[in-house]
Specification:
About 45% of the residues lie in helices and about 15% in strands. The chain has about 500 residues and is an alpha/beta fold. A hairpin with a 4-residue loop joins strand 19 and strand 20.
């Protein structure tokens, strides 16, 4: 039972009908918003093609350069020059719709334009909450955050929420994958940190899901994130990740990390042009390896504070960059990932404002996946337990909007309007009594009582309420049911690979 399924403000009797809103399959009700004209979109796309064809991209991986060269690219040392025809051919074979399987059928997700998929904050070196403070991320933090992700239907995929820094890098992938598989049945994430680590992850997922090699390769069961090394570089682990995932039929989310004025030009148009070029180069590699391999277009573009160099998020430039990226994503037709987030240092009003502004940029840009949509602060240096809950409040409101606004004859309420006298009220009207139990969304952390009632109850603010919610969720958490034989086999695999020394990253 997720938080949104109760009636408003706890007034629903046990026998009352329960709200049945499907947060697992969201389609966007929002019209996409353009930041620039269509001719300027075409100009950005043409500029990106010119960059790849004439200026080139550095590729630090021998086999990747071989794939490019066999596909018709010109290779000079570690620089690769990719022609327009190669890009067009890759975009023609890359699938427009990708169904990724979860651990249960109701956890399957479809990635395509028009869908909405949310992920919480990811890739953070630190975790923070009001009780334990800010700290380097641990495996316990990762486990708890996976459990919270599992607990809310509006979060659809498990990302690398926080780095488990108390586990050595050669073993971390084993521990984090085991937690994802045992504590959640949502789509899991694997790092691209070298083929041995990736293959460990594939084997763990394959066996835990009860698949053959052919069944695993025939359909996506996990995903990775590929960050090009901006500007204009695909480094060793990222190139290897693109190859490994494409060969095995698993999706890569290609996401250049282009901060305006730092790793990219200081203008929105320049930064997105660079990002687009890098994404096209990486997408092309996946199709050269395995035509038809699932791949997502991605962008993560914002600006920096030019006085300090610190990343900034939830800014007008961040919002505009998302809109332009959405226009390019629609041009090439691929499912795509955008990013929310906040650069605030704590879960305060600044953090809420930045996250909401960034979120609406993604929604109005038509993003398929929005990462960093809950809990992400400090420009990604920390994930906040309290902010994860308060951000989920907003995501669930968005999910409610996706359900649409009923406007049947009964909803128009003509008879109720006739029955209630002028200056009367609708509290006791039959129309109200028939519907109030299932009509309204109840907020997670909001309080709609008046100031006097609120202070009488202790005046608990949103962050304090959020602390109580995440603690209760963890205390009540029940992992999804698992096959005992598969669980035992998973534990034995992790123990064996640990005894063998695991796998060093990038090896």
């Amino acid at each position: 039972m997720t938080e949104q399924r109760r009636g408003r403000r706890g007034r629903v009797a046990a026998s009352a009908p329960q709200r049945q809103v499907d947060y697992r399959n969201l389609r966007s009700p929002f019209p996409t918003m353009n930041a620039i004209s269509e001719d300027r979109v075409e100009a950005l796309h043409e500029a990106a093609l010119t960059i790849l064809e004439e200026t080139g991209i550095k590729v630090l991986h021998d086999e990747a350069r071989t794939f490019y060269e066999k596909g018709g690219a010109r290779v000079s040392d570690d620089m690769v020059f990719i022609g327009r025809d190669m890009i067009e051919a890759a975009l023609a074979t890359a699938p427009r719709s990708i169904t990724v399987k979860g651990g249960a059928p109701h956890r399957d997700i479809t990635l395509e334009l028009g869908r909405i998929v949310f992920q919480p904050g990811a890739g953070c070196p630190h975790a923070t909450d009001l009780d334990r403070g800010r700290r380097p991320g641990t495996l316990r933090d990762f486990r708890e955050l996976v459990q919270l992700t599992q607990s809310f239907d509006v979060l659809h995929m498990v990302p690398p929420l926080v780095e488990a820094q108390d586990v050595a890098m050669n073993l971390r992938h084993l521990a984090m994958t085991e937690i994802q598989l045992t504590q959640s049945d949502k789509v899991p994430f694997l790092y691209s940190r070298g083929t041995p680590q990736v293959m460990d992850g594939f084997e763990m997922i394959r066996d835990f899901r009860g698949l053959t090699d052919a069944e695993f390769r025939a359909q996506p069961w996990c995903y990775t994130i590929i960050n090009t090394n901006s500007p204009r570089t695909i480094d060793l682990p990222m190139a290897q990740g693109l190859i490994d995932f494409a060969r095995n039929g698993q999706p890569s989310i290609v996401t250049p990390f282009t901060l305006m004025g730092a790793m990219a030009p200081v203008t929105v148009a320049g930064a997105i042009t660079l990002s687009h070029a890098e994404a096209l180069a990486a997408i092309t590699l996946t199709q050269l390896v395995n035509p038809g391999a699932p791949v997502c277009y991605g962008t993560f573009t914002s600006n920096v504070d030019m006085k300090s160099g610190a990343p900034a998020f939830g800014t007008p430039e961040h919002f505009s960059a998302s809109l332009v990226a959405g226009q390019l994503a629609r041009k090439i037709g691929l499912p795509w990932r955008c990013a929310g987030g906040s650069a605030a240092n704590i879960a305060d009003a600044q953090a809420a404002n930045e996250s909401q502004f960034a979120l609406w940029g993604c929604l109005l840009a038509g993003a398929t996946i929005t990462i960093h949509s809950a809990g992400w602060i400090e420009g990604g240096l920390s994930i906040s337990y309290e902010k994860m809950i308060t951000d989920l409040e907003v995501l669930q409101m968005v999910a409610e909007l996706c359900a649409g606004t009923p406007a049947t004859e009964g909803d128009i309420a003509l008879d109720a309007i006739r029955d209630v006298a002028p200056m009367g009220h609708f509290f006791g009207a039959q129309h109200t009594m028939d519907r109030y139990q299932t009509q309204f969304y109840e907020p997670l952390v909001g309080d709609w009582s008046n100031f006097g009632t609120w202070t009488e109850r202790g005046g608990i603010d949103a962050s304090t309420r959020a602390t109580g919610i995440w603690k209760r969720k963890l205390a009540e958490f029940q992992p999804p049911a698992t096959d005992s034989d598969r669980l035992s086999a998973l534990e034995q695999f992790v123990a064996r690979r640990t005894a063998e020394g695991g796998a060093n990253p990038e090896s």
